[in-house]
Each structure stands twice: as structure tokens, then as C-alpha cells.
Fold this sequence. Notes:
single chain, mainly alpha, 8 helices
Amino acid sequence: MGVVSIMESIFDLVKAVITLFIIIDPLGNIPIFISLTKGVAKEDRRKAFRNAISTGFIILLFFALIGERIFVLFGISLHSFMIAGGMLLLIISIRILVRGEWEKSSTAPERIGVVPIGFPLLVGPGAITTTILTLQTSGVIITIIAVLIVFAVVHIILRLIDPIYSFLGSSGSLVISGLMALLTAAIGIQYMLNGILWYLRMS
């Protein structure tokens, strides 16, 4: 029985890690990250990514431990959170598509790392919702370990972003970042629609 329980825990952990990694999608967001840090010195870019990883990790850990209680305290539902997060993703995408970047390149790397890279690009409504659902189905320990594993992988990917940028080149990065911004806008709209449709069904 003990072996069965361990195998079930391992299966839950693997499932949680894969699901969360797909939702966060650091590989798919690389062109967006490059666009957001365009014109930023290499060391400042690394600083922005370190801040992004720290921000995303703290947010997910926070919601894994007391997120549901916070929602209850303020009377917020997951669906309201999805609508708000979707709006933020849509705004980010539109600014990237129209201006070619999130803000002027003079923006402090610390700020870029926190918003929008750390939140909501790395950790958005989908990642937070997934973390809370994992907590409900698999428990606190598996949820925390899954978050640790995923962010360890994200850290490795972001450290390799310079070679990836060199491989893509400025033109390739511009094209791919535009496509990813469009997909991010679609994801944001889908979050909003899911939240709105839930409220329509409940009314």
C-alpha cells in the first residue's frame, strides 16, 4: 500500500509539473521577453529576469499557501481574477503590437522584471488557477515541489536567452515577438470570456 501511495504521489507531482510548465510556457514567451528587454544591457537583462523569477515564484508560493483565503477575505472569485488578468494580458499585447515593445527601453530592469515579465507573463491567472487546483487535488507538499521544479527550469531557460536571441536575430525576434503578442492577446481574451461566461451561466 505504501508503494502504491508513493507511485500515486510521483504521478501527481509529474502531472502538476507538466501542467504548470505548459501554462507558464517560458519557451513560447522567449520572443516576448526579448522584446520587453530590447536595448537593455546584458547584465540589466539578467537582473530583470532574476526579478521576474523571484516575483513569479513568490506569487505562486503565496497563492499555493493562502491564495484561497485571500480570495474569500476580499470576496473575489477565481473567475473575476481571470477577467482582470486577461485584461492586463490584452493591454500588454496591444502595446507590444503597436509600439514594438512594452515601454521605453529606459525603463528600470527591476520594474520590467516584476511587471510584466514576472506577472502576468510568467505567472498569470492560468498559473495561479492551476496552482490552486493542484493544491486542492494533490496537497501542499506536491504543489510546492512542483512550483520549485518548474521555476528551476524557467531559471535555466532565461539564463540561455542571450544565445537564443543571437540565433533568432533582431528581425526574427521582431516577427516572433509580434506573433507571440498576438497569441498572448488571444489568451487574455479567452481568460476574460471564460470568466464572463461563468457569470452568465450563474445568472
